[in-house]
Design goal:
34% helix, three-stranded parallel β-sheet, alpha/beta, D-Maltodextrin-Binding Protein, domain 2, five-stranded mixed β-sheet, 3 domains, globular, 15 helices
Length: 427
């Protein structure tokens, strides 16, 4: 049995009659393999902090509604009991602890395991959008292209030295987190906003923001609306299972405006509903609106309003519990940003290997140590830049001046060019 903490695991155990009398129902056990375990009706779900403890209780016998067993990946075991607990119950819990721990280490990747798994498989499993212009779209031959796709290719280049060793798994907004939690994919790169609740309650870690977006509105030019403040009473099409729903409600509520939401679970169906005039307004990230406008038969008939109503830092996501894998994904992104800052591109990267600048030499693996620190080949960043490009190259060909979207780079410019894009130094 694969025991994943993001799935609920019903737990039963034998207890002496005396112990059962003292505790009532069968005590609940929470298995933790590096994520917060949540007890619900005798089942295990969620993920976990460094130490499991009920509010107001102390880590000792007493103060807990049910016995809770916490197993850390390092095989440290902490037991918290009710006020009354018996040796026989302890023995049963210890037996279950060994069983569950053995199962957990087989079924769930612990620290460092993701890299090993990916290498043994021979390719990266990457979750992407089902089809979003500029971010992730398959061409007529089934080859994927887009900004989020390039992030996945960068990770593959870092790990394998080959950016093409990726299998893309198209996922809806509702499917994306479950696919990552279950281990179906190794990384999620699907225009996903980093929020507190997603970071803290889903058992996931967000890498660096790769694109700073914001939610906007698109309307038909014929509607005569030029500002979001004129949308009182409008019917708004919105995608279900996204932060867009909450942002929409917040915007109208704080301005004492009314709207009727048309909530649809499929992105393509949301766009169809808007273009077939089922609603007055389409709301989404501004980059997504630009893509939908381009895809329409007559883009000049639609206007994206000037207001940006939210912060949407988009970036790759990995599972909790594997710091090395998070480092690899994060530094794959930061290598692209550092490369642009240092003037290294896919065109000149070979020549730049001869440069004496120590920053360039560390990035390109001419001065060893950076690859070893990540558990990768010393040329990991060279492979990214050569095969995928620096950040600016990826932006321009997918979203910016060399793309059909022609989105102004804006705040996604480097910090040195007036934007907010910034990467830690490679040293």
């Amino acid at each position: 049995m694969n025991a994943h903490c993001d799935r609920r695991l019903p737990v039963t155990m034998r207890m002496s009659g005396e112990a059962r009398q003292a505790h009532g129902d069968v005590p609940q056990i929470a298995l933790d393999v590096g994520r917060r375990s949540v007890i619900e009706n005798g089942a295990v779900s969620g993920y976990s902090p460094a130490f499991t403890k009920e509010p107001g209780s102390s880590p000792r016998y007493g103060g807990i509604a049910s016995p809770i067993l916490t197993i850390r990946p390092q095989r440290r075991i902490a037991l918290i009991f009710n006020n009354s607990f018996h040796l026989e119950s302890f023995r049963h819990i210890a037996l279950i602890a060994v069983t569950l721990f053995t199962t957990s280490v087989i079924g769930v990747a612990t620290a460092g395991d993701t890299l090993d798994t990916v290498r043994k498989r021979g390719h990266l499993q990457a979750g992407v959008h089902t089809g979003l212009v500029g971010f992730a779209m398959p061409d007529s031959e089934g080859r994927w292209h887009g900004f989020d796709v390039d992030i996945c290719r960068a990770v593959a280049a870092a790990v394998f030295g080959d950016a093409d060793k990726v299998k893309y798994v198209p996922l809806s907004a509702q499917q994306r987190f479950t696919a990552l939690q279950s281990g179906e994919i190794d990384v999620l790169s699907r225009n996903t906003t980093h929020t507190l609740t997603r970071d803290s309650s889903l058992g996931l870690n967000f890498g660096p923001a790769t694109y700073y977006d914001g939610q906007g509105f698109m309307v038909p030019v014929a509607l005569g609306v030029k500002s979001a403040r004129e949308l009182d009473g409008a019917t708004v099409c919105v995608l279900a299972g996204t932060t867009t729903e909450m942002n929409l409600a917040d915007y109208f509520r704080t301005r004492d405006m009314d709207y009727k939401g048309v909530v649809i679970e499929n992105k393509d169906e949301v766009a169809k509903a808007f273009f077939s005039e089922r609603c007055d307004v389409l709301t989404a990230d501004a980059s997504a609106l630009a893509g939908e406008r381009i895809k329409s038969k007559k883009p000049e008939h639609f206007r994206i309003l000037p207001e940006i109503i939210s912060k949407e830092p988009l970036g790759p996501v990995v599972r909790h519990g594997d710091d090395q894998w998070l480092d690899i994904v994060s530094w794959s992104v930061w290598a692209m940003i550092n490369a642009e800052e240092l003037g290294i591109s896919s065109v000149n990267v070979e020549d730049m290997q001869a440069i004496t600048n120590p920053k360039v030499r560390r990035l390109l693996g001419e001065s060893p140590g950076m690859g070893a620190a990540l558990g990768l080949d010393e040329k990991w960043a060279y492979h990214i830049i050569k095969q995928v490009g620096n950040y600016g190259e990826c932006f321009d060909r997918n979203l910016g001046r060399n793309s059909s979207l022609n989105i102004n780079r804006g705040i996604n410019r480097l910090w040195s060019d007036g934007g907010i894009l910034y990467a830690p130094p490679i040293r």
